[in-house]
Design a protein that fits this description.
The protein is of the alpha/beta class and 178 residues long. Helix content is 29%, strand content 24%. Helix 2 runs parallel beside helix 3.
């Protein structure tokens, strides 16, 4: 991956595909102060109600191959964002892994770490597969039908039938005489 937006799109697509019913996935959510100044931007927020608790999950993505492994300062920043903006969970996603010693610190602070390596479209297509596709088929049995026929056909059928009531029962063989 060479563009951070591609990584964000991939991660948000996966979370959108896997989210529980009633949850929402938002990308690039900007936060402004009372004066209209932007104070934060979040890559991905997954939110919804789990039981009686409102859940807010922040997912931040980092795709900077030239900078090497994600530094400890990034995780420290995410710890601060979690408490300042009230997230229940925070996940850091990197394409270059994480600096030595950082994994233990993130674990202690409750920050989930994920590493994504480059994926080809062929590999990715197998991730999301439809296991079943329920289909409903309706079938009906026709027991009675009323057919309106042209006046000349109606007269012919009436002349070839033996009944005098207003309604007649015919079968397809009666059409042979008309």
């Amino acid at each position: 991956m060479s563009d951070g937006k591609q990584l964000e799109s991939l991660v948000s697509y996966l979370e959108e595909s896997l989210k529980p019913k009633g949850f929402e996935v938002e990308k690039n959510d900007k936060v402004f102060d009372d004066d209209g100044n932007q104070i934060a931007e979040f890559d991905i927020i997954v939110s919804g109600k789990f039981g009686s608790t409102e859940m807010r999950w922040l997912i931040e993505c980092r795709d900077r191959p030239s900078a090497g492994a994600a530094p400890g300062s990034w995780i420290e920043q995410l710890v601060g964002r979690r408490s300042r903006f009230g997230f229940n969970k925070v996940t850091a996603v990197s394409t270059t892994g994480f600096a030595p010693g950082l994994i233990e610190y993130a674990k202690r602070e409750g920050i989930e770490l994920r590493t994504v390596s480059e994926v080809s479209p062929e590999e990715f297509s197998s991730w999301i597969q439809v296991g079943s596709f329920p289909m409903q088929t309706n079938r009906y049995n026709l027991k009675h039908a009323r057919v309106n026929v042209a006046a000349d056909l109606r007269a012919c059928l009436k002349n070839n039938s033996s009944g005098d009531s207003g309604e007649h029962e015919f079968d397809h063989r009666d059409l042979d005489h008309c």
